[in-house]
Fold:
Amino acid sequence: MESLKRLCVVKFSDFVSIMSEAMAETTNWGKLQTEVKGYVGIDTIQEQIRKKALKRGFEFNIMVVGSSGLGKSTLVNTLFKAKVSRRSNSAEKDQPPIIPKTVEVQSISHVIEENGVRLKLTVTDTPGFGDHINNENCWLPILKYINEQYEKYLSEEINVSRKKQIPDSRVHVCLYFIAPTGHGLKPLDIEFMKRLDKVVNVVPVIAKADTLTIEEREHFKSRIKYALNENGVSTYPMKELETDEEDENINTHIRDQMPFAVVGSDKSHQVDGKEVLGRLTNWGLIEVENHNHCEFSNLRDMLIRTHLQDLKDVTHGIHYENFRFERLNKHQKIDKAEDQESRC
Structure:
């Protein structure tokens, strides 16, 4: 308790540095190696963990943010090849979409299964974001929602009779959709990512990239990268958290590709006897999983096939721990002030 009383709020950059050092320490175990003479069975630990994890299932929570008409729902459906995201507007086709008066936060959950692996996927959409003439503070409902999920997890974690497995509704990644204007980031784009990058993993994507030529796309990406660097916006993956050369090489390659220029489509078409997902236009078929057509596959590989667990680890070890530290420290200060008042 005395050690808790000496805690103080640290800057986010300092907190990241502390956590990255702690994470780096765990990788040093490989240097301490003792030869095993004979078979012990240590190699079965991985299989034991795998079996338990498969029985329990996995959770992954993704948030999509961006103006209406950028194909957020379609892209998420394309990522998981299933109808996992509701349309942001439920209006009839012959009627204009209904724009909420304020930003709404809507979540929908599904349990999807592939080759015996069950995943509880929660998709959180934000209809109304950026759709108004005055978008001042339109990120506040989103920030509030993210912090509410941290609060729920913390409340369960510090509960005396907590559940064996705490339900995880924390947002693991936020896909921020950038309109394919070709001109650069809007002030709203920069303000949003600056305010949210401290509490969630932000991954920027260029929506409907098929509206840009290859030259326009590369120029647009360069302008976006420059704007992000100039304004100190931190996107996932964060360089400060890399603990070895392999991670650094992989993540550097990902950062070089970002923001991903993507095209989404949940409609199948026949190409050379094979079914492919794509958008049929007057000048041909845009295949969403074709590297020559867009960077959708790169985004999917990072989100699901290579960095899904890391996104969860960074959420828990960095963003949630930062929230937890400040929240408990605030409670401690209040308790201390009340204790001093009671003594007077």
Confidence is low (pLDDT under 50) at residues 1-8, 88-92.
